[in-house]
Amino acid sequence: MITHFFYGFDHVLYEVAMAILPLIVMFAIFQVFFLRLSLKKVWKMMIGITLTFFGLSFFLQGVGIGFFPAGQAIGEMLGQEPRAWLYLPIIGLVFGFVVTFAEPAIRILNHEVEKVTAGSISSNVLLLTLSIGVALSIALSMVRIIVGIPLWLILVPGYVIALILIRFSKKRFITIAFDAGGVATGPMTVTFIMAIAVGVANVTEGRDPLMDGFGMISLVALTPILSVLVLGLLYSKKEEASHDKTPIQTHHHNREKETSQ
To answer: Residue 174 belongs to what H/E stretch?
Structure first.
């Protein structure tokens, strides 16, 4: 039983090692010629790299024996339901929302944004915004598979709307939005949700898993961009309202001061 879980694990270890090795080499070069960090810091980094190596290896192994089969089985089961057109968008909405909360890359982005903006953009608000965006994209992907909507009919208008929103958004939200689009397509979303979409397309009559099961990740990359840009517009409206309110409050305060004198 245990050997079944670790079948092909040696190949995973090799792939992860080949992916991390260039980073180690670059760090070693910078350490020798530029950084020259203390031995204590280097030792701490080496422990972190080792944990990353084994953590990523175990994660990829778990994806191969757990996430992919489970996602595809769920997708095939849901696709065979008589009222799949009703269940799938709702379940896709829930899955998209929950998976985003578990996405490690999104949590890192939220933490960095909150730190750089000194808390003016809360990590919880950004996490909720991205979760809503990804949830809508998964629900839309399920509708696309059921109805058979061509992918470009969603992507082209979506990016046109994004370009229009850029015109009215602040620069900091524009940069965050397009980073969020890439970060949202992390390992949790790709491995689990894509497997569900392929499973649904595999059992849906008239659908090709290759043509209809894929393309979902492009929607996941689009909707966080739109949701963050909309969040930026809401922040701008809030700031404008506070600026408009401040002179009125100052005027009333000055009148009260004159009356008391």
So the answer is: helix 171-183
Domain count, the chain: 2
The gap from C-alpha 240 to its chain's centroid, in whole angstroms, comes to 29
Per DSSP, helices labelled H in 31-170 are: 39-62, 68-79, 84-102, 104-116, 123-147, 152-168
Helix (H) or strand (E) segment spanning residue 247: helix 216-260
HSE-CB for 113 with a 13 A CA cutoff? 24
Please tell me the distance from the alpha carbon of residue 157 to that of residue 137, in angstroms, as a whole number.
14
My answer on whether 46 and 165 are in the same domain is no
**Residue-level pLDDT at 187:** 81
Q: Angle at Cα 90 formed by Cα 64 and Cα 193, nearest 5°? A: 15
- Residue in 234, 153, 148, 218 with CA at minimum distance from that of residue 184: 218
54 with 88, same domain: the answer is no
Regions in the chain scoring below 50 on pLDDT = none
pTM of the predicted protein model? 0.80
Supply 255's token pair.
Answer: 């009148």
Is 258 part of any domain?
A: no
The pair of structure tokens assigned to 199 is 């499973």
Structure tokens given for 204: 């849906």
What is the model's pLDDT at position 129? Answer: 94
Taking the C-alpha atoms of residue 25 and residue 33, their distance in angstroms, rounded to an integer, is 12
Question: Which distant-in-sequence residues (6+ apart) come within 8 Å of 259 by Cβ?
Answer: none
Domain encompassing residue 224: 80-240
Instruction: Identify the CA nearest to 72 among candidates 202, 184, 206, 212.
Output: 202
**Rounded distance between C-alpha atoms, residue 261 and residue 258, angstroms:** 5
